[in-house]
Design brief:
By secondary structure, this protein is of the alpha/beta class. Helix content is 28%, strand content 29%. It has two domains: 19-49 and 198-363, Vaccinia Virus protein VP39 (Rossmann fold), CATH 3.40.50.150; 55-174, OB fold (Dihydrolipoamide Acetyltransferase, E2P) (Beta Barrel). The protein has ten helices and 17 strands. The chain starts with 18 loop residues before the first helix and ends with a strand.
Length: 364
Amino acid sequence: MICSSFGKCGSCVLWEIPYKKQLEIKKERLKEMFGGFDIPEIEVVYGSDEHFRARAEFRIWHEGDKSFYAMRKRKEEGRGVIPIEECKIVDKAIYEIMTPLLKEIEKNENLRFKLYEIDFLSNSKGELIVTLIYHKKVDESIAEDIKKLKDKFQDVDFIVRKKGRKLVFDKNYLIEELNINGKTYKYKIIENTFSQPNREMNQKMIEWALKNSKHLRGDLVELYCGNGNFTIPLSENFNKVIATEINKESIEAATYNADINDRNNITFLAMSAAEFSQLKKENSPLLASYDLKNVLIDPPRAGLDSKSREFVNEFDNIIYISCNPETLKRDLETLAKNRKIKAFAFFDQFPYTNHMECGVVLER
Ligand SMILES: C[S@@+](CC[C@H](N)C(=O)[O-])C[C@H]1O[C@@H](n2cnc3c(N)ncnc32)[C@H](O)[C@@H]1O
């Protein structure tokens, strides 16, 4: 990939290294980091190195009567943001609308004044949700101006936000379609809730989790399930699934997603991983009908808190999806003690950055 913002933008820090070389470097880093564990050969899973991000957030920089997208500076250049001409990592649909959208906004002082950030969310059909975030009081009077934008960009749903206030002009979600092993799964994705940023890699991660859970028997417990991204395809490998997540809107989407994909063996609960872990200690009837042998976890960067780690450590088989190798390593110190690491994958969700997503399968 070649991007005119390379070398200026602080997002793609590995811009000077050819893509395949980045994969080799990251694999070596993981090998070194996890050298103290008995891990099998690291499976490297990668996809396209351009137009791979289905969601993106840009600060807006105003100078005279012009406005620009801005990204944080490279670390070497100090703090702050710099204007960028383009961003090649975002989905084609986002890439194509970015400049014309800002040109329209520039023409309308009400839309432009104190516009602080623009967020984009896209689906595989190229439909978009665009969220305009302001540092000023906004009310329904902005609707007229949004309507003018909507006339120009008919397939886009607009949302306006300022601290504590959200105005939804169309709908606040997209329906995403994922192709998993040749089968189509549909997902409602609600704006401003978690969704996997890289669609192609997400499909490959789900396929990897399916492959590595095919031989498991019984039920599945899932922590940090989001909108049911893994839950729905994986429910085909298990008798019953109980999946939990802290965000109520994500659970609402997950329940809807189970329904539109005709999955009827899943129970979704909105609660924190620590609260759910406590249910086991209390012998809650909610868990009574589940055999607690298999667990899937996909926590945020902080990894597992101590209560959840203790809970997960009671399962025979663990599938751990991690977006932070540091906390993964910390958690494996406990979880790999009495289990064998059967598979270790590196999913390159974030080309040109130092971020690394991993998948680990542990079996007692
Ligand atoms: C990395 S995302 C994974 C979501 C989902 N597995 C997916 O693939 O889209 C982590 C999820 O954990 C949720 N989360 C964050 N802290 C949590 C907590 N303490 N307990 C339960 N869920 C939490 C977030 O809302 C988010 O949906």
